[in-house]
Amino acid sequence: MAMALDRIRHLSLKNIAKYFVHGLAFSILFLVLSFVWVFVSAFFTTIGGIIGFIIGLVLLFLLVGFANSLVTSYLWFEVRYGFWDLFIHGFVLFAILFVVNIAITVVAASVISGIAATLVAFVIGSFVEGFVGRQVASWWSEKYAAQTTLKRFLGSSMFRYIARRLLYMIPLFIGISIISFFIMYAAGDPINIIKVGRPQITQETLDALREYYGLDKPIPIQYINWLSNLVQGNFGKSLYGGRPVNLLIGNWFWETVKLQLVSVLLAFFIAIPIGVNSAKKQYSKQDIAVTSVSLFGVSMPTFWLGLLLIILFSFNLGWLPSEGAYGRPYLWWGNPILDEIAHLILPVTVLVYVMLAQNVRLIRANMLEILRSDYILSARASGLSERTIIYKYALKNAISPVITYLGVSLGAIIAGAPMTEYTFNWPGLGRRFVDAATRLDFPVVMGITMIITVMTLVANLIVDISYVYMDPRIRLR
Amino acid sequence: MFTWTRESGSGRPRKMTSNNKEKASRRSASQWAVAWRRFKRNKPGVIGLTMVIILFLFPLFEFAFTQLGWIFPARPDPAAYTFFYEIPPKIRQPPSLENLFKQPFRFTGIFGTTSIGSDVLSDMIHAAKYTLYVGILVTAITMALSVAVGATAGFFGGWVDNVLMRIAEVFLVFPSLLLILVFVRIFTLTVGEPFWTIPPFNIQIPTGLTIVIVVVAIFNWGSNARMIRGEFLRIRELEFVEAERALGAGNGRIIFRHILPNVLSSVIVVSSLTIAYAILLEAAVSFLGFGDVNTITWGQILQENFGDARVVWWAEFFPGLAILFSVFAFNLLGDGLSDALNPRLRE
Q1: Low-confidence residues of chain A, pLDDT below 70?
Q2: Helix extents (H) in A185-239
Q3: Which parts of A25-165 are beta strand (E)?
């Protein structure tokens, strides 16, 4: 609380102006420096190919870090200028600003239009840049430890833990990629799929197609080619329409993320009060109702629940759209944003109900265990109010398993999306996967499988790392 | 009325009469009898068991129902489409509660007809056997795989454990529903005969559905194998295993005679939950249009009428309700069994 108050006091009129100046100066400096950088990196890339490109990227991060450090040391405080300091500083700042700027521009453009949007985005963007820039730079300010950041990090047990986890991921990744690749050969020669239903196709055409898709080479060579393309972000071309798979996936991906993010967050925050209350009054009427409803939710076929909602709310009552993510040309509720919300309501309800059931069961079970532990007893003995005990001391430990569960089940959440997305005809990854699997469009199928699996792996890693921060009782092995 | 008990200290059995007060409390009971007594006290578990038994009644009496004329015969038979061949052909909705008892009561038609004019109730009762077939066979294959892998990994440890668990992790990380869809699609393309007939009783086994079952089972053993490995790791460190080894027992004897019976209660609990999960998964696969078109399952009925849901909502409502009923039954049973068999886990 005290820290939050400090933050608010910190935002005086003078400081707001300073943040704005920081952002403005950073933008101008970055613009000037990047003008030089374009030529330098183009030179390196033509000379050195991929290595030159990497050098260019490193230069970009150094440059961003340098610009921000310069502005910060004039406006706020001294910053260290070592190579690794600048590099990591630049990388972190670049990643944050990249996301934030896109978000601001998109939101501004969807609320107001024309030159006003650009102006508003610029003003807000400058302020946010200044704020973020100062925050990031403060991690490299002189008041932090004498050691450089990198050395401190490399020596920590955390680093060793992450390194070991990354090493463990390598065989996992190889196994996953092998299974993903051999999806294509599970039914024998994949070219035969093209032959189905086309008896007039000639041998020459088949051979040409085989060569076009690179299927004439030996299978291990094909696997290595596929993998090396994949690492470079090239997922091949769709067998239907011939469009590059990574572009297709890029379009579908955000629709799924939008749907899932809203429902995961809602489910998480609704589950906390419900789970806590039913643990507080174990075996009360409310508790029994909550547990039985959530057991019901675990057993519920998602698609069926979705169907019932569609039949009730869109077919019979006509309140909500029955399918899709957008209502063009007819907009629901007369506004593009309200229209998206109208389309989100039913699928989000289905997903939230199912996830809520899991989360409530987890929180309730953890909370019951924690409320009986000794440290809660001593908190009670020292006369703290029930609210403080539960929300400040008990909840922290009760939530961490839920977060682990969320990370571990990310794959299942996204893999479960096909059912909901199919029911509501949502144009996301899951719906498109069902289409691709129906017509055996192998590059799309393999691409989506790989993306989802790698995302699950990374989410698991992030959850494991954040778990260490949340729960100090865990020892790093 | 008397029982023989063994007194501590002396090796001689002592005759006890019924007027001995200690008799009731001393009566010996096996582990299973104790578990059953505990299970009977658990109301949700008993409700789950009852629901499961009801579920088994439908396939058992399916033949009788058909012969009595209560329901129509199964799908490929033209008589199944009775409502469709009425003149004029007509899709019927379920009768309202007032109309239900006005006319002479019939079972057929109380859930309405599907969009192609077959009776929903008859289809659902014919599909019940496939639901149980899916649940039980998937669980049998999954548990066989996961017990084999989990026992090997947990008992031998070392590099065997490491390799097997990495393989299990690959299957855990994979989004199983996606892969199930693709592999089911690929393998069902190559299906020739829709049914295998087993000669002695002329039992027909649906080929496509069996492919779905095998694929579902292959992609779901990971988490169970991990659980069983954990149990094996815990039990192999206990003293009685050490004692058995000192007596000269081999690995096979220790695994099958001593550790496995201890793991059995967990296996039973997990099996019940796996049945529920398998039923749900098969319904999802069928609903997404990847199921076996020659076999009528509940998910298949949902898929067939999905496009006409605006009209025939009853053909979506009742089969879905049946799926919910059976999954709920096995989940309740699993929770009850876990309370009865693993009292350590109880609050």
Answers
A1: 1-10, 48-49, 113-114, 142-156, 187-188, 193-194, 196-197, 329, 408, 411-412, 414-416, 469-477
A2: 191-195, 203-212, 219-231
A3: none
Rounded to the nearest angstrom, the minimum Cα separation between A228 and chain B is 20
- The number of beta carbons lying within 10 Å of the beta carbon of residue A289 is 11
CA distance A389 to A377: 10
- Dihedrals phi, psi of B238, to nearest 5 degrees: -75, 165
- Check whether the bond before B88 is cis (ω within 30° of 0): yes
Chain B residue numbers touching A452 (CB-CB < 8 A): 175, 178
**Is the pTM for the entire model greater than 0.80?**
no
Cβ–Cβ below 8 Å for B179 and A186: no
A458 in reach of chain B (CB within 8 A): no
DSSP A53-81: HHHHHHHHHHHHHHHHHHHHHHHT--B--
Please enumerate in sequence order all residues whose Cβ is within 8 A of that of B317, keeping only pairs 6 or more positions apart, or say none: A308, A311
Indicate the residue of A175, A303, A440 with minimum beta-carbon distance to B287.
Answer: A303
Interface test mutation site (partner A, options B182, B187, B301, max chain A beta carbons within 10 A): B182
Nearest to B36 by CA among B277, B342, B340, B345: B340
Q: Does A420 touch chain B (CB under 8 A)?
A: no
Tokens representing A416 are 């479960």
Q: What is the Rg, in whole angstroms, of the alpha carbon atoms belonging to chain A? A: 27
The CA distance from A65 to the nearest CA of chain B, in Å, is: 37
CA angle A3, A7, A8 (to 5 degrees): 120
Q: Which helix (H) or strand (E) holds A406?
A: helix A395-408
Instruction: Render pLDDT for B119-157 as a digit per residue (tens, 0 to 9).
Output: 888 889 989 989 999 999 999 999 999 999 999 998 888
